[in-house]
Amino acid sequence: MTVEQNVLQQHSQKHQQTLLNQLREVTGTTDVQLLQQALQVSNGDLAEAVAFLTEKNAKVPQQDETTYYQTSQVASDRYISVGSQADTNVIDLTGDDKDDLQRAIALSLEESSRAFRETGITDEEQAISRVLEASIAENKASLKRTHTEVWSDSPNPYDRKRVDTCSVGLKNVGNTCWFSAVIQSLFNLLEFQRLVLNYSPPAQVHDLPRTQKEHRNLPFMQELRNLFSLMVGSKRKYVDPSRAVEILKDAFKSSEAQQQDVSEFTHKLLDWLEDAFQMKAEEDREGEKPKNPMVELFYGRFLAVGVLEGKKFENTEMFGQYPLQVNGFKDLHECLEAAMIEGEIESLHSAENSARSGQEHWFTELPPVLTFELSRFEFNQALGRPEKIHNKLEFPSMLYMDRYMDRNRETTRIKREEIRRLKEHLTLLQQRLERYLSYGSGPKRFPLADVLQYAMEFASSKPVCTSPVEDIDTSAPPGGTTGQQLPSQSTTEQDSLPAAESSGPASAPTTAPTAAQQHRIPIHKPFTQSRLPPDLPMHPAPRHISDEELRVLEGCLHRWRSEVENDTRDLQGSINRIHRTVELMYSDKSMMQVPYRLHAVLVHEGQANAGHYWAYIYDPHQRCWMKYNDISVTKSSWEELVRDSFGGYRNASAYCLMYINDKKPFLIEEEFDKETGQILSGMDKLPPDLKQYVKGDNEMFEKEILEWDTLQARKAQQEKQALAAALAAAAAASSTSSPQPMSIESSPPDNSAPQQDPEYMEQPSPTNDSKQLQEDTERAISRAASEQEARSPEALLNAAIKLEYARLLRFAQEDTPLENDYRIQHIIVYFIQNQAPKKILERTLLTQFADRNLAFDERCKSIMNVARAKLDLIKPEEVNMDEYEMWHQAYRNFRETTISMMTGLELFQKTNYIDALMYLIYAYQYNKELLSKGLYRGHDEELLGHYRRQCLLKLNEQAAAMFESGEEAEVNTGLGIMNELVVPCIPLLLIHDTERDLLAVEDMRNRWCSYLGQEMESNLQERLTDFLPKLLDCSTEIKSFHDPPKLPTFSILELSERFSLVMAAMGRVPTEGR
């Protein structure tokens, strides 16, 4: 907006005062003469004036501009994006913080001065806004990373293979979640996707020398086309955007365009795309003004209607992303209403020549894609840094923009005036209602209807006794001799009786107490004694009230209470009707002609200077919301979006809303083949050059899969050969040690056991697990033999097996506490509970009875030989050995999980959280895999999850305490714990999205984010700002992790005993709170 030069000249004095006020506020200088001198020396230049006042500050050391990100404000000679900067000055915020902040503020004030000359708007909020932007830039510059953190890919390509036509994710190549969120939002605008994929560079650029913009924008466009083509047709689950990101980062480091903050990326991205399409449009034009598709898609216009002290003006401006303040508003419409009106606007549509100033914005043309920037940062003057606003802000899935359109200006003004009048009336009604609901003149107030009810209840209460004074026995002796005169009274009764002073003259000389007696014996006085008299009424009641008085009083109180309740009900009804009227003010059809549907929500979690970004994008074909979080693309819901985006819940909230015109379906419609009429999908969408590019990448990925398959087949073959060699060696050793024929698997040599024989089933020495099994087996044989001595060995074997199976079946069916887990004691219990096939159970029991350690008497030896013979007679087709081995491997996994869990819990019990963590982490992961195959395959998931979570919280507290100490060694140890143990484990808590795990992660993050507002040494501040992005990264991709801890070995008896002890102490999950 511009105003006539003479208007500014008339108010130059006011301008001078405004500059003085701004200098005073920013520099803290109160000396008016010094401020005037600074302005005089600088000839009114605010930047020089601030420099003059802060010239004693240290000089800014020069930095290598290729080392760090810097901050700049980029000029645009074509369009003014609302809220964007338009200066070419560069602030290097990588040097001394205080001096740089002053320079940032100086530039901010210079911008404010320019804005005043152009707009006449000089209110305090404009200056604070500029300071805020500069400070945000400073904090962003302080987050420079010397080592970018790159998530590693899984070596198994099948883990990275795309499933059917699922959306493709974007790899985080080092704190680039902001890139992923924006690009995914734009990619899912199918019209934008088509424009990018079908873009071809101007032919003339091949012949002419490239300008700096062409040198930057055209390669970026090609990389963006390549990236989009991979997102369309790749066979990968996610793709790498490194090339496009590197071009962006290089540009942000240059002197021409440097990143101000994450939201600025979208501005710059659209600027680049606009430049690229502008070159193409100018080449393709035929005498007409070239049309830029980026401008047509993302830019709109509004009319600024203003009055500057009686002088009216109108000016049309173009906007891209429209900024909205969040603080102080409850929903998006309130933000928009506030953004459309600035200052006092009564004079805008009045005939009076008012001295008030203000302006209104009216949209004349809305873009098909309407983007709102939500300003969730404010400058904390006390701390000198920005803070994030976590307030809740609601926004609708369907937004009607009619009330903000210029063509509805008069209608909207009438409705706004009506709403203003209604809200004034509403305020009066609410004040009246408050008097009814909070009645009284003291600090405690109550609803008037309740007060009247209480009075009615008091009046109708029947008195239990008369005044306490009248109940006192006046014949009792004075207080000084009470205890002596009533020796038969109990001490309690004596203490409870109030003593009355005697009024008889004869008693005075004999009962006058001494000073010592007065000191020793308390004097009971009516109404002042703290002890309650025994006959005090149980509840308050009137002492004297006649029936007539009660009847009149009850009638009045009842009538008054009814009147109050009616008045309260009428007021609440009127308030509700006004609320409803305001809500429906714009619901008529004439004000619902410009519908915009929510397309994408970009979410930020964290604080002002660190955090993580992801996007929720609506899929119109599946009719559901999708969550795009780097490589992870999952189905979501409106409820989850609300939880993460409205704010007020955690540290997560929306910072950008993207709406699309609901009357322009081409924005999200798929393209149709002109010849066949079929929807184009996948590779059919791509032009020939990109088809070839994607085909080449897919071939590389298929080659990677083929190499992986070959490698795995080679490993399997080697393992098979090694197993065959081991079996052959075992067979040879067995044949030389015993002439009796027996199967290889059931007769291990003395010093080694074949791999398919579980070590918990048979050991060469009866000192460990096999000793327990041997005792169980011998007991079963003895019981079978005692029933019938004349049985043959085969009959005894069958009877013993039946008895042993019956015993183990009873254990499997018992409902036992956690500390008495029979699965640990015997594999058959595990098999029964998990419904293993009968053939597997039979062979496992035979193997138990075929143990050579049974051969200590002839009866056991004969049974062992029969069992071995039966094993030899089992044909391969009768028992699937692969299935047999699979079940035994499952039990081995169960035992390893049990050992890992038990060891972790024992270490946790000893407060050795560092060593406990890895055992608990791996136990939880192993256990989850087991439970995925059956309910009884593993242990209590909730229990393991609780102690895994508690272990991380304990380590977080320890690390935070070390950081707070400030000692370098302690700080290094604390941050080492976080970087090496806690941070790598956070994705494990986020990946399943359980509420308690999410709350634990939030608590850990909040603990460290709380340091942002505290004073600390510069080296600690630097360490903190380097660490926070790692902690706040919400990616669920697992980094390279610690190797599993080495598991100790236990016999069955030892494992059962230790497991029982630790589960008895820790087997109950306590109630968790925040």
Automatic annotation (TrEMBL):
Q: Which domain of life is it from?
A: Eukaryota
Q: Where is this region: Disordered?
A: 465-521, 734-789
Per its record, the protein catalyses: Thiol-dependent hydrolysis of ester, thioester, amide, peptide and isopeptide bonds formed by the C-terminal Gly of ubiquitin (a 76-residue protein attached to proteins as an intracellular targeting signal)
Check the record and name the Pfam families matching this protein: UBA_8, UCH, USP_UIM_N
Low complexity bias: where?
Answer: 498-516
Query: What residue ranges carry the coiled-coil annotation?
Result: none
* SUPFAM superfamilies in alphabetical order: Cysteine proteinases, UBA-like
The UniProt subunit note reads as follows:
Homotetramer, inhibited form. Homodimer, active form. Interacts with ACTA1 (via its C-terminus); the interaction occurs for all isoforms but is strongest for isoform USP25m in muscle differentiating cells. Interacts (isoform USP25m only) with MYBPC1; the interaction prevents proteasomal degradation of MYBPC1. Interacts (isoform USP25m only) with FLNC (via filament repeats 17-18, 20-21 and 24). Interacts with GAPDH. Interacts with SUMO3; the interaction sumoylates efficiently USP25. Interacts with SUMO2; the interaction sumoylates efficiently USP25.
Name this protein carries in UniProt: Ubiquitin carboxyl-terminal hydrolase 25
Give the species: Champsocephalus esox (pike icefish)
